[in-house]
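Hi there, hope your week has been kind to you so far. It would help a lot if you went through both lines with me. No rush at all, and the record is pasted right below:

***
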Amino acid sequence: MRLQFLNRTREISKLTRALNSAEPAFIVVYGRRRCGKSTLLQHIASEKDIYYLADQQEAPLQIKSLANEISRHIPGFDQVSYPSWEVLFNSVQKQAQRGTTLILDEFPYLVQKSPELPSILQKQIDSRKNTIHLIICGSSQRMMQGLVLDSTAPLYGRAMEIIKLRPLEPGWLVDALGFDAIKTVEAYSIWGGVPRYWELAKQFSSVEAASKELILDRDGVLHEEPMRLLLDDMRGASQPHSLLGLIAGGANKMSEIAGRLGKPASSLTRPLANLIQLGYIRKDVPFGESIRSGKKTMYRIEDPFLQFWYRIVLPNQSLLEQDLIDEVYAASKQKLTMQTAEIWEELARLSVSRMEIAGQRWKPASRWWGKGQTGKQMEIDVVAESMDGSSILFGEAKWKKKTNVTQVMEKLSAHAANFPKIGKRKIVLAAWCKHPVSPPGDTLVFDANTVLDVVKN
């Protein structure tokens, strides 16, 4: 079941502007698999444009296959034998209508079989005879970055636009699945922002049925998805697979991760940085601390789907191999509830900089943990500074059937009074609740509808 085309207005604007330029444009689009890169490119392609999806055939077969596709636009193009990529691209330049866009999707597959291809394209792009636009696209983020962003690469510095396609924001899931706001948060806590996952889940009557069939079932379409992602993006999948498993399991500090692996912490700096760059994990530091702060840094899984997989699937693989799907799901309900609560906290933080609160606009919010003025350990879900620096916001996020907002505010007020770094800033208190119970009239309370609406843009 296909989804309607959602959002991507920013990316469409960039692509359209580049393709409407007077000079031939070279554009790069990349990002993790299933985020909708191919759909986006097909969406913006006109009838005269040439779209080619590469596969892993040998180079002569790839050349023949591309020639066949080009013949749909240039009659007879496939009646000629092309001994090399250079000959083929020279022929395209001579015969294609000026302003035609050639889209090479899954470009890394072509380069794997023809390492000389980036240099050939460099010559085409640099040639004064060049009259066509070129878009290359790929799911292997590592290879695409190496082909375009590495200063030693032939195509470095030649792109008019480099677009990294990221997962969709959670608010769009309301449109995709047609759920109410609460069910949408619960669905997002499993599927994250990957459109293809939403498309697959839409076939099922509930989030539970979809997760059992697609993820927990050993033959499910997404059962081995994390390994496919890692093999796309990393030279080896074993170490990142282990790191993700440990972080999802609660080893959030560098020292803990290194200890469990039996390796020096220094050896993990680069692998963890790679996972951050790919969008799979993130660094958390308390509000007000530098992101370079080593001692207080906590590593978290960034992607909800990966978090679900490494928390639920990985520890239960032996049981799932025996088709004990219902049993695993039932035993994991507490973990699922905890995961939804964590995702709700993240959505609360994400919403802060997207809306006006107490008449102020706010900088991005963070968590805070540490010792208060009294020396007592505290944790606060949401802390942010106003854009003008005059105010500080403290918030709690609760994903419960019923939340007594008065009690939450009393606790939050005590934490705010004990917070060590307020200075002369005005204190603003707010709560993000699934089901708030009788909040006082002047209390700032935000529900799932409000949050999803502001995290849609």
